[in-house]
Specification:
The protein contains nine helices and five strands; from the N terminus they run H-H-E-H-H-H-H-E-E-H-H-E-E-H. It starts with 8 loop residues before the first helix and ends with a helix. Helix 2 packs across helix 3, helix 3 packs across helix 5 and helix 8 packs across helix 9. The protein has one domain. A three-stranded antiparallel beta sheet has the order 1-3-2. The protein has a two-stranded antiparallel sheet with strand order 4-5. It is globular and about 45 Å long.
Amino acid sequence: MLKYGIVGMHDLVQDMLNWERFYLSGRYVHILVDNLDIANTNSVNLRAALSAALLLLPPKFTQEDLFAKICSLSYMGDLRMLFAEDKNKVKKIVQGQFDLFHSMYKPFLQEYEAKDFLRVSASGTDQANISQDCGLPVTCSLVSSLPPAIRSQMGMKLGEKKRINEYGRAINEVIIGSREEAAKCMQKVL
């Protein structure tokens, strides 16, 4: 039903913001003692997970497809998924926790819908159908929402250029030739 453990807050924050180990950031973590702003940190993590999943999804998909892709991120490259784990593990997690996924990601789906990255349309069931803009500007925006460590590794593979952000600071931006190229690169990095 659940796994439990004790982790240092610094380690938790680092994994949620940078996906260095991509273990804690890929799970629903309940904090008993919060002496930091974990809710804000988790928002950054959830937005990054949504962005990563969208890069890997086709132009049209269902809400269940989206949550399954998000859930599957932390299992990418896990050799146990090839032979030791239930092949339907991700699907079972999503179906069993659909309402939790919906409540966690709803604000970010609304944010992306307001930016015209997505169009969410309700169907006759609880399930929503989603279509996304797969153009290069949206792709670049999604990549910019990924954790810095992931963007840095993608930049080493695809190239980087310096850009001045809204605060006047120079930042490195990944050079993206196509959505497919960005998705494949990100998937390899993860």
